[in-house]
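Example S7 (structure tokens).
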């Protein structure tokens, strides 16, 4: 990522078109709250402090962050803090990257039932990995699994999927030995996909029978049991997509990977190219060649509507740990695995890539030292006084109930 501060930010588009979006679409309380947070982030609305240079007298106001977990500007510090805590739990073994995704036919259902749909995605993927890994014919071991939820594609449309970082091996059932996976192979992908499909659909079926699904709007036809059964049959007949990438080289590579995926929001400010006031152009990876990028132009309202599709339910945890790194196993099974690996003459040491930590935790959006004066270049900035909160009424008049549909359709 570039060290230069982006010229265009999601917050700029919220400030210029947020009111208009609220008048044309039905926005939930959470959506209005997030838009207010983004619009006021690092502005006088949240207050801050004034830094003054002792050398040249230059004054620079520094405003507070909104700390919203959907804000593109507020994730760097949280990411670095989280990574520092997770480093101690990495094992000195290769790690695999496994991705679970659901068919597009389920996108609207999950979008309308986010909390239940996301929880089902986590449960089905984790149970699938652990069940197949424990099979003596496969690996016969308990894995270490960290799962991260993403809900977006490069074009910001709704595309729920789960990124899993999985240890290349696991602890035997009795905890007596470490069982390594093959060098380039963890578990059979087709078997993973079919078991994941069965577990996911079984849980969704139970929710349907118990009346836990919101089937309003476009989903009303699914209240007819025959239509629901027809959809379920189609989903069982379809091959679901689960794929595993080549294993990482070691804990250092896992660290870099986690830094890219854990605290990412739907789009970073660095992907915004330009706006003419009515449309916004963003960068996106080419689906046919991920090493190439292309540009996509949307109306600002449509862009904001797609961004709001990816707000997570209140207090929903999007990073979860299973197996050896589950909370109850850290001091027992994970510690046992570490001792066993040490006995096998694999160096069990905590990796502390300070350079990566600093890069993940810039003190300013452009990565420069906060205490260096931008005018004279001397590290002489001193905090002079606290700036009070300014008028934060922006966005309070967002329309509450216009007849439009929520967000942009997937």
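Recovered sequence:
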């Amino acid at each position: 990522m570039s060290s230069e501060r982006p010229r265009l930010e999601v917050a700029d588009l919220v400030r210029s078109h947020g009111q208009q979006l609220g008048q044309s679409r039905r926005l939930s309380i959470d959506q209005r709250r997030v838009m207010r947070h983004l619009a006021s982030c690092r502005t006088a609305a949240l207050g801050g402090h004034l830094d003054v240079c002792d050398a040249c007298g230059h004054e620079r106001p520094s405003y507070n962050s909104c700390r919203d977990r959907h804000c593109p500007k507020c994730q760097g510090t949280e990411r670095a803090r989280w990574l520092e805590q997770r480093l101690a739990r990495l094992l000195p073994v290769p790690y695999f990257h496994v991705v679970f995704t659901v068919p597009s036919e389920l996108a609207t259902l999950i979008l309308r039932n986010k909390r239940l749909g996301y929880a089902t995605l986590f449960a089905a993927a984790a149970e699938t990995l652990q069940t197949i890994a424990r099979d003596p014919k496969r690996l016969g071991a308990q894995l270490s699994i960290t799962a991260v939820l993403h809900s977006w594609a490069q074009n910001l449309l709704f595309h729920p999927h789960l990124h899993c970082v999985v240890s290349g091996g696991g602890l035997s059932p009795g905890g007596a030995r470490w069982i390594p996976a093959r060098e380039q192979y963890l578990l059979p992908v087709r078997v993973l996909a079919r078991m994941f499909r069965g577990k996911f659909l079984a849980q969704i079926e139970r929710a349907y029978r118990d009346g836990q699904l919101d089937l309003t709007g476009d989903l009303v036809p699914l209240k007819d049991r025959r239509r629901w059964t027809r959809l379920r049959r189609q989903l069982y007949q379809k091959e679901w997509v689960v794929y595993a990438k080549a294993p990482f080289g070691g804990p250092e590579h896992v660290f870099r990977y986690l830094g890219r995926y854990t605290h990412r929001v739907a789009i970073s400010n660095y992907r915004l190219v330009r706006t003419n006031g009515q449309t916004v152009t963003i960068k996106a990876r080419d689906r046919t060649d991920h090493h190439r990028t292309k540009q996509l132009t949307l109306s600002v309202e449509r862009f904001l509507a797609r961004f709001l599709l990816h707000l997570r339910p209140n207090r929903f945890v999007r990073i979860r740990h299973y197996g050896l790194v589950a909370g109850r196993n850290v001091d027992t099974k994970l510690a046992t695995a570490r001792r066993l690996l040490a006995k096998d003459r694999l160096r069990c040491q905590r990796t502390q890539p300070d350079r990566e930590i600093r890069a993940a935790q810039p003190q300013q959006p452009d990565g420069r030292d906060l205490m260096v004066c931008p005018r004279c270049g001397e590290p002489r900035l001193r905090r002079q006084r606290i700036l009070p909160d300014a008028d934060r009424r922006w966005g309070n008049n967002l329309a509450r109930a216009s007849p439009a549909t929520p967000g942009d359709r997937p």
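Notes on this example. DSSP finds eleven helices and 13 strands in the chain.
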